Amino acid sequence: MPKLGRSHPSNDTAAEHAANDRPSEETHRSLFGEILDWMLVPLLLLWPLSIAVTYIVAKSIANEPFDRALEDKLNVIAQQVKQQGNSVVTRLNGPARDVLHADNVDNLYYQIRNHRGMLVEGEPDLPLPKGEELPPPWTTEFRYDFVRNAEVRIAYVYIDLNKTRPETQFSHDSRLALVQVAETLDKRSQLANQIIKGVIVPQFIILPIALILVWFALTRGLRPLAELQNRINQRRSDDLSPIDSGHVPEEILPLVGSLNHMLERLSQNIRTQKRFIADAAHQMKTPLAGMRMQSELALRQQEQEEIHKSLEQLAKSSKSATRLVNQLLALARAENPTPDARLMHAIDLTELVRDTVQDWIPMSFNHRIDLGLESPEEEILVRGDRIMLRELLNNLIDNALNYTPADGHATVRVRVDNAKQLAILEVEDTGPGIATHEHVHIFDRFYRILGSNVEGSGLGLSIVREIAQQHGADINILENPHCLGQKMPGCLMRVSLPLAEGDDMTEEEDA
Question: Rounded to two decimals, what is the model's pTM?
């Protein structure tokens, strides 16, 4: 019976997993090389195209003088064609034949046909013109055709044998004879090739020079980037001041502006972290010193009752230290939100408030405070981060319960202001309230109202302000309208949040 055991992956599978675990290597493109490619590749692609266009133009240029010469030869032959009786005769004398071969062209053909299309003289293989409509008499036409599998250029003209002088219109008694002169394209091709050579040879010299000039121009053009890199490399590691953009090209200004903006945010984050560390160290001194003192006192005590009292004080100091640490961490999260907390969810504020108030009911019983909730039945959607909004409400309720005396009242209220399209979150208490001159400082870190005699770290409202700012909310401090005429004016903390569009957003649970 085979022995069962743990299966092991094959070497290929293990190698594949190892390859997947390795960080992918990013390929960095060269800006210099990319600009050079975008400049040279079109240039190199257009070069053969320019040669082709030049060749076509060269052939057109070469055709003009040869066509004129071919037309002259055609006119010489046409002038020698006469009608004698019912026959067509030619009088090609010696000078006329010399004109035909003036350029020592061996592949020159001519043909004369009478009005019946019969060959009178010349090359019989020369094809007839194509087309149903004849050109006017004595009008020279040109075409390309083939003679003995060789391409030729043909000039042809129709002669009215009944007219003694050239006319451009047909008549009822017109008798048309056809005269054609053709020559091969050898000399034309030779001339076109000479023109191409005259154009291409200089290009072979100019192109390398152009490449060198482009290389030099790119090097000079990208020099400001190298200078900017050197200036950044020469900065101290703790220098987060903005980069001087005085000598930066216009195209790089947006990049330098983004870098300066990033440096500003980084500097602000570092300042926040330094301030947080300094504040945390300063605030932790007191509870830690108290815990150390109580522990040392407990060690020196002999009586069980005294030891118990010291341990109670030690537990109380530990609880205060724990609360302080938790609030410091909450403040750090509020001031430095993670990329995930982008406020992209629609949250039912009514449900959130109900769940949060439910958690504070036991504490309200311990403080002998009547904690109430006023909320509508329908949902109220706001755009935000559920955890942060719950932290905001926790601090407002904690603040209300701490400052409300025993047998007092605290109420959490949520409603909608349809006129302003706002969700209103209110926490009111029947405590001593907050004086108007304290409103400016009440949200500062570790700020405590003198004479309040309430335990706390002074961070709760700082956390509330940071979370409210992230959510685009406004905070107002008012007197409790239900405490008018009473000894204590009470306090009402109102947070106004923008309503979310329910059709455009999804619930956080569905995200």
Answer: 0.46
